[in-house]
Amino acid sequence: MSNAFTVAVLISAGRHPVSGAPRACRGDAVAMALGRRMAGDGVRVVHAGAAEEPSLQDYLALGAGTIEVLPLGNSGDAVAALASHLKSVDVILTGSNAESGAGSGLLPYALARALARPVVANVLEARVQKTAVEGWDVEIRQFLPKGQRRRIGCALPLVIAVHPLAPVQLKYAYARRVSGRIERFPETPAETCVVQPGWTVETASRRPIRLKARETKSGHARMQAAVVAEAKGGVVAFEGSTVDKAQVMLNYLREHRLVDF
User: In what order do the strands lie in the sheet containing 7-10?
Assistant: First the structure.
């Protein structure tokens, strides 16, 4: 499929949350499906990391004809390597976040900053169209809370973070897994990379339990609150000492039986 614009999708190494088995990251697989819808077989699929990563085979089975692998070497700076490799690409798609890590989800913003181009997050649909004045632009349908959606138009070049609920179909085919290929690119010269401190991997800490007052609303009232923005009420303590303000908070916790002292 011949296009006057170029589209690239970034993929990462996924892991099953229970078994830890290598697999395609669903968010990146959804982004790749959206990229194929935009550019067909002309979409470029890029991975920064090791070419021996076993999860790349799943991306081949999901439709990536060729995966371009960029070795990171000792610098470990994926943003610098990707920015150098994709500086001429018009549309770069990524998933909203990887499958683990507290800092996951920063890559599209860091890459957009390195390339000095805008980034659009929570994208459900994207379609590149030709305009009479500016050449090419992208029509985007964006996810918003409470079931709302928004259509916006953006000029190229652009970085897009795809929402995991984007309406695409993921079709796995073993024949594509066998016929696809992984293309290794030479390592980016050290002088073009910004050396980053070493990454450390640690187990995720348990999330704190959020204190929330029990609701006594009817089912109809709760359904309306889910789709209509409303004021939550409450008390704002502007006056008084810190002890007075703490007493207001303690009274609220006791009133809703969130503490027992």
Answer: 149-155, 135-143, 119-131, 158-162, 91-95, 7-10, 44-48, 66-70, 181-184
The two three-digit tokens of residue 215, written as one number: 């609701």
143: left (phi over 0), alpha (psi -120 to 50) or beta: beta
Place of tokens 């290598």: 22
Q: What is the mean pLDDT of residues 106-113?
A: 92
Q: Which of 66-75, 104-113, 204-213, 226-235 has the lowest mean pLDDT?
A: 226-235
Residue 53 φ then ψ, to 5°: -60, 120
d(CA 217, CA 224): 11
Q: Which helix (H) or strand (E) holds 136?
A: strand 135-143
Q: Which of 84, 82, 85, 107 is nearest to 94 (CA)?
A: 107
CB 75 within 8 A of CB 52: no
Report the C-alpha gap between 247 and 258 in whole angstroms.
14
Q: How far apart are CA 215 and CA 213, in angstroms?
A: 6
Summarize pLDDT for 232-251 with one digit per residue, the tens.
566 788 888 999 889 988 88
**Number of Cα atoms under 13 Å in the Cβ half of residue 214:** 7
Query: Quick count: other Cβ atoms within 10 Å of Cβ 66?
Result: 14
